[in-house]
From TrEMBL:
Any one GO molecular function term: glycosyltransferase activity
Lineage of source species: Bacteria, Candidatus Woeseibacteriota
Listed Pfam families: Glyco_transf_4, Glycos_transf_1
SUPFAM superfamilies reported for this sequence: UDP-Glycosyltransferase/glycogen phosphorylase (SSF53756)
Name this protein carries in UniProt: Glycosyl transferase family 1 domain-containing protein
InterPro entries: Glyco_trans_1 (IPR001296), Glyco_trans_4-like_N (IPR028098), Glycosyltransferase_grp1 (IPR050194)
Domain (Glycosyl transferase family): residue spans on this chain: 190-350
Domain of life: Bacteria
All copies of domain Glycosyltransferase subfamily 4-like N-terminal, residue ranges: 68-178
Length: 374
C-alpha cells in the first residue's frame, strides 16, 4: 500500500521529536507548537518538522491567573488546519489542551482517525470535570480511536473516564540508549556527585533535596550536588550557587544532557505532588529524567509519587514523598556504599535496555497506530 502520513501535534521537546524519528513505515509530519520560534533539522527522509506559533484567542490567558501558563493555556495553534491537510491519521498527547481540540475537530470533519497518548495517573483529574477543560476532555475522548498509555498506572485515569480497555494499549516511552549510557570513569572517582535535573519546583521535591543535602554535605568530603533546569525555585538555586553550596548549571540542552548524567554517581528525584485549591492536579506520571538516569547506569533515590514505582522497579531507593529522614537515609546508603551504587546502576541500565529502548518503543507505537489504518 502507499505510505501513509501521520500528523504528530506536540510541543518542542527534543526527546519527543527524536522518538518519532524512529518511525519507519509512516511518513511523519511533526507539527511542533510553541510560543517562541523553534528550529529542528532532521536527516530522515520520511520525517518533516514544522514549527507553528501558539496564539491566545482571548485578550489575556486565564491560565496565568493560576500560574499555569503552558499546557493549560487558552491557546490555539495558528494555521494548524492548513498543515493537517492530506494526513491519514493524527496523534496528540493528553486530553485537555485547547490545541488538541483544534486537531480532533479537524479530524472529525475529515473522517481521520485520532490516537491520543495519555500520561496522567490521577483518577478524575481536575481537567475531567472543571470547565472549559472538561468540555475539551469529553470531545477528545469521544473522538479518539486509540489511546496509548505510557504506563500501566495511567489506567487509573482512563478507567475513571470509563474508556473501554479495548481502545487502550500500554506502551512505554523510551530514550536513546546510545546517547544516554554509563560513564566508564564514574566508578573511579573519589568525589560523590548527586544529580537533580528538571523543573526547579517544590512539587518535584527540590526543596526536600536541598534541605537534606545541606544536612549531610559537611559529613562527606567532596560531596557535590549538581542541579540543572529552570522553574519557580531558580532564584533560590542561583543564590546557593553563588554561595558555593551547590553547582547550578542552568537549563541544559538535550544534546548536552548525556554528559551531565555521566558526571553523576547518584540521581535524586524526590517528587511529591502539586495542588490547586487543595485539589491534586499533578504527580510524577512517568519521568523522562528517570528513564535517562536508568539508561545512564545511575542508582536512583526517588519517591512513590505517581508512576515512579512502575518506572524504576525494584532495587532503587523509593521513600515516602516529604519524608526527609527517609530521604537522608537513602542518600547516605548510596554515598557510603560504592558496590551498591555500581550494582544498582548496572541493574538500571539493564532495565532501560529491556523496557525503554527508544527505537523499539517507537516501533511498537508505530505498529499499534498502523493497525488503525488497515
Amino acid at each position: 500500500m502507499n505510505r501513509k502520513t501521520i500528523a504528530v501535534v506536540r510541543g518542542n521537546r527534543q526527546n519527543v521529536i527524536s522518538f518519532y524519528e524512529n518511525f519507519e513505515e509512516l511518513n511523519v509530519k511533526f507539527i511542533s507548537a510553541s510560543f517562541k520560534p523553534f528550529k529542528y533539522r532532521s536527516g530522515n527522509k520520511n520525517f518533516e518538522f514544522i514549527n507553528l506559533p501558539y496564539y491566545n484567542f482571548l485578550k489575556f490567558d486565564p491560565a496565568k491567573l493560576f500560574n499555569q501558563y503552558g499546557n493549560l493555556s487558552f491557546a490555539f495553534i495558528r494555521n494548524l488546519e492548513e498543515y493537517l491537510e492530506g494526513v491519514d491519521i493524527i496523534n496528540i498527547s493528553d486530553t485537555y489542551y485547547f490545541s488538541n481540540l483544534q486537531a480532533v475537530n479537524w479530524a472529525k470533519k475529515n473522517r481521520v482517525p485520532v490516537v491520543t497518548v495519555v500520561w496522567c495517573t490521577i483518577p478524575n483529574h481536575i481537567t475531567t470535570w472543571f470547565p472549559p477543560y472538561s468540555f475539551i476532555t469529553k470531545k477528545i475522548v469521544e473522538a479518539t480511536d486509540l489511546f496509548i498509555l505510557r504506563s500501566k498506572t495511567a489506567l487509573i485515569f482512563t478507567d475513571s473516564l470509563n474508556i473501554p480497555r479495548s481502545k487502550i494499549k500500554v506502551i512505554y516511552k523510551g530514550v536513546d540508549l546510545q546517547k544516554f549510557s554509563s560513564s566508564p570513569v564514574s566508578s573511579h572517582r573519589s568525589q560523590i556527585t548527586i544529580l537533580f535535573t528538571g523543573n526547579l519546583s517544590r512539587a518535584k521535591g527540590l526543596d526536600d533535596l536541598l534541605y537534606v543535602y545541606e544536612m549531610i554535605r559537611g559529613r562527606y568530603r567532596g560531596l557535590r550536588l549538581i542541579i540543572a533546569g529552570d522553574g519557580e525555585m531558580k532564584k533560590e538555586i542561583e543564590k546557593k550557587n553563588r554561595d558555593k553550596v551547590l553547582d547550578y548549571r542552568g537549563f541544559v540542552s538535550y544534546e548536552k544532557l548525556p554528559d551531565l548524567y555521566r558526571e553523576a554517581d547518584i540521581f535524586c528525584a524526590p517528587s511529591k505532588e502539586a495542588k490547586i485549591f487543595g485539589i491534586k492536579y499533578w504527580e510524577e506520571y512517568f519521568s523522562y529524567a528517570l528513564m535517562e538516569a536508568e539508561a545512564s547506569g545511575l542508582p536512583i533515590v526517588s519517591t512513590g509519587s505517581g508512576g515512579i514505582g512502575e518506572e524504576v522497579g525494584n532495587g532503587n531507593s523509593l521513600v515516602a514523598w516529604g519524608d526527609l529522614s527517609a530521604l537522608k537515609i537513602a542518600l547516605e546508603s548510596l554515598i557510603l556504599d560504592k558496590n551498591k551504587r555500581e550494582r544498582v546502576g548496572r541493574q538500571n541500565r539493564a532495565r532501560a535496555e529491556k523496557f525503554f529502548d527508544e527505537k523499539i518503543q517507537a516501533q511498537k507505537t508505530e505498529a499499534a497506530i498502523i493497525k488503525l489504518l488497515l
